[in-house]
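Exercise: predict the structure of this protein bound to pyridoxal-5'-phosphate.
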Amino acid sequence: MRSNIHPSDSSEPSTRIPNELLPADGRFGAGPSKVRKEQIEALTALSVSVLGSSHRQEPVKSIMRSIKTGLHSLFTLPAGWEVILGNGGASFFWDAASFGLIRNRSEHLVFGEFSSKFADIVSRAPHLSAPLVLSAVAGDAPSPVVADVDTYCFTHNETSTGVFSSLSRPLGGQDALVVVDATSAAGCIPWACDEVDVYYFSPHKGFGADGGTWLALCSPKALARIAEIRDSKRWCPPSLDLAVSLANSRENQMYNTQSVSTMILLDEQIKWMLGNGGLPWCAQKVNLSSNMLYTWADKHELVSPFVTNRDLRSPVVVTLDFDKVDASALSRILRANGIVDVEPYRKIGRNQLRVSVFPSVDLEDVASLITCIDYVIGRLV
Ligand SMILES: *Cc1c(COP(=O)(O)O)cnc(C)c1O
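Solution:
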């Protein structure tokens, strides 16, 4: 089936999986993730009219406008919410939030690599009080507590461990902002706008575009906080200044030059999601994919879902532990056969595979992946 074995992986694998078992597309990575061919076609279609033309002129601005309106529809954002874009990706947004969202003290739920990085940034910021950090071991998730903080920092989906966390505003924490890292959840998992003030992500996961950009959906309360901190004259590097980013986004621009190709890929993906039924359709598709994997693993003698609490199992990033099978040998063989990026998060240190099933990943390919894993296991044990 596969026509495009990755060039660097084309050395003869020790185990050759029969062609008819292979998925049509072997990309199951947590990001960068599968880019659909229609996204590339959109890029080609605009290669002369938009690519290589000014980001301050209408052709590019209209794509920015379309992304903003598309996200309003996809997430059914209430009146008063705004979409802000900036360069750097979710990691830069953490820096920006430490300057422009947290007034003095934040609470962080830490249950993996990404949530821990944000907490780390904030704990070293000289202008902020030490944050309240609530941690859980890998594979679990902490619960928020109401505390004397002005910002709650949650992660919708911990990409490093495959743990999903439902989003709800801590009762009694009504004055505080709820700021959510949704990098691998956005476009895959439904959420309620009244539980959240800032929902931020990068476009190279659920949206199958490229890295290097952050997007933040902001409630009126979040916009008021950005204005409040701007008016307080706290020093902030302009490239991380959310008030500057907001002003630019309102003009369908970014503070400095954005990746125009990323904007085209992203816009195309949002339209594809909306055309198929929006977020409910995306969520249903990723649920079917991940359920296929969890159901298979639950029944398998040698495979088990890493996340034992079913309520915390991510519908989009599936982490699987292996018994008696060397998972790194398994992922090496899969890679040599064109099935890529199912290695576990590098620091998790488990005998594990991690499979991401973003909306672009097709159900038939998930089924083929399972067949291929079984085929290789049969040759490894
Ligand atoms: C990938 C990821 C990030 C980092 O995104 P970058 O665009 O590489 O900065 C942050 N948080 C989560 C939850 C992620 O999955």
